[in-house]
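Design request, tokens follow.
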């Protein structure tokens, strides 16, 4: 029987909201694991009001006080790692090894990083830039942050959005994806336990159509941050624009994976499989477009097909499982449909291309070679365990193909030639370019894209730009009543 869980977390407490009952489905079995009541637009009003009321005191806390709460939260999150893993695996179907070694420790490290970063916000040096004034910079918390997150990495995406905002002194209202609210609710409860004042971190669960729209377009928030698809991100931006609210958008991706002729072929093959299959390919930075030097093409395709053929698909709770299900049957059908149409558009399915005989929303690792540049699988986000491959003739052609996309989130270049590596990192349009690797992220470095992948940064000190305003304070140091510059305005005195 499905376990009833708290609906929302508002003003430091669990709240039973009055929306309809929603079942959280384990995509590995198709069975309900828990249920909760959805929030409504009225609950968004309550949560925003709680955040607004809590904001001044939290913004006024010293950096050391904010840091202490976040450090305690990092410790509590680490102590609750097993609970986070269990919730994440049951609501997303991601393999337990990924949740244990990537999602949860990465989230704890991120909280830990911001506990430190909260104490050293920097700005331009205070100085007498005009000669007659002392100019200084104040970096002030922007206010109430509304944030909306997706289902693929529910805990990490919540952490990336909420924690830097809290470190900066903001109050937050977050709406996780309706199908994956569990770890976000646990995070909020632990933040309270860590000493975060009531109302500073609120969670409203519910659908994008009702709760998401109400939150993104709320008059009383100051910033709207979003992680999700490009199509919805643009709607969120339009909702926020009604009140002129600033936005930060982390959107879709279609990462190129460029293998130059001098690359270490084995490393590129291993990297392509890992980069394409992470989180069952439901990763915005996943390698999706392998662009391979003609000389290496056949060996690359054969190598990737061989490694993909050994991937263990199955029960995500089993530590030996490599690939879990997709998030839902509907999403699996979308992925299967795109792969099924690929041969009509010139693609050759080398391996995979089918669902295994398992009850959940599984799909086999799939490699599609010889794809046409105009084909759907090459241009659109598939968000499944599918890698496409094309060849290139020379370096100019490789970089042209890498940039032949509206997205610009992540990319990788595989080469042993330092000049090629430098050129690729310079010329590929993306928020991150890896050299001889694909996927690793670290708390100290920013994540965020360009073009249809959005703008603004998560992680690292750079993310503070989203949550702080910069105020210039300019103080006269002359004490002179009739200032020299006044003559520009009224000359005859
Ligand atoms: P999505 O469909 O865009 O949904 C994202 C969030 O927006 C969900 O919480 C959703 O709510 C909500 N939402 C839907 N319609 C809304 C509206 N009109 N107004 C306000 N909120 C609304 O994305 P997804 O399918 O969950 O996630 C996959 C996408 O996220 C992929 O495109 C992936 O590339 C992207 N992503 C990007 C990054 C990055 O850092 N760039 C990271 C992870 C994922 P409900 O689902 O509850 O209805």
């Amino acid at each position: 029987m499905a376990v009833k869980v708290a609906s929302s977390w508002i003003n430091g407490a669990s709240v039973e909201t009055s929306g309809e009952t929603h079942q959280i489905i384990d995509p590995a079995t198709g069975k309900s694991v828990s249920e909760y009541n959805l929030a409504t637009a009225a609950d968004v009003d309550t949560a925003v009001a709680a955040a607004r009321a809590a904001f001044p005191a939290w913004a006024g806390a010293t950096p050391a006080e904010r840091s202490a709460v976040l450090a305690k939260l990092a410790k509590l999150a680490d102590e609750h790692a097993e609970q986070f893993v269990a919730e994440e695996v049951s609501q997303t179907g991601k393999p337990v090894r990924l949740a244990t070694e990537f999602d949860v420790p990465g989230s704890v490290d991120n909280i830990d990083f911001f506990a430190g970063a909260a104490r050293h916000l920097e700005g331009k040096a205070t100085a007498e830039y005009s000669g007659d004034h002392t100019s200084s910079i104040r970096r002030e918390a922007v206010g109430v942050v509304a944030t909306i997150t997706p289902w693929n990495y529910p805990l990490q995406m919540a952490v990336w959005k909420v924690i830097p905002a809290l470190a900066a002194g903001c109050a937050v209202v977050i709406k996780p994806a309706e199908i994956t609210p569990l770890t976000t609710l646990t995070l909020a409860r632990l933040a309270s336990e860590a000493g975060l004042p009531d109302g500073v971190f609120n969670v409203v669960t519910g659908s994008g159509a009702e709760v998401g729209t109400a939150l993104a377009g709320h008059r009383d928030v100051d910033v709207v941050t979003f992680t999700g698809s490009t199509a919805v991100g643009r709607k969120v931006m339009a909702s926020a624009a009604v009140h002129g609210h600033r936005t930060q958008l982390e959107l879709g991706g279609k990462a190129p994976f460029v293998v130059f002729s001098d690359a270490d072929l084995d490393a590129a093959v291993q990297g392509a499989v890992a980069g394409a299959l992470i989180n069952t390919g439901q990763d915005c930075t996943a390698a999706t477009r392998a662009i391979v030097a003609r000389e290496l093409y056949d060996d690359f395709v054969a190598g990737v097909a061989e490694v993909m053929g050994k991937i263990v698909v199955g029960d995500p709770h089993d530590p030996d499982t490599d690939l879990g299900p997709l998030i839902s049957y509907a999403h699996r059908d979308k992925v299967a449909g795109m792969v099924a149409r690929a041969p009509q558009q010139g693609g050759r399915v080398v391996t995979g291309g089918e669902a295994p005989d398992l009850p959940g929303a599984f799909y086999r690792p799939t490699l599609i070679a010889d794809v046409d540049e105009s084909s759907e699988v090459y241009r659109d986000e598939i968000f499944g365990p599918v890698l496409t491959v094309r060849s290139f003739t020379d370096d100019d052609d490789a970089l042209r193909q890498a940039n032949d996309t509206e997205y610009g989130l992540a990319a990788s270049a595989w080469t042993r030639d330092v000049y090629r590596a430098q050129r690729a990192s310079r010329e590929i349009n993306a928020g991150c370019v890896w050299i001889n690797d694909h996927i690793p992220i670290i708390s100290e470095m920013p994540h965020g894209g360009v073009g249809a992948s959005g703008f603004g940064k998560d992680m690292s000190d750079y993310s503070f730009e989203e949550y702080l305003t910069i105020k210039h304070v300019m103080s006269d140091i002359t004490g002179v009543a009739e200032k020299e510059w006044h003559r520009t305005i009224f000359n005859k005195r």
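Comment from the thread starter after seeing the answer: thanks! The first strand starts at residue 3 and ends at 4.
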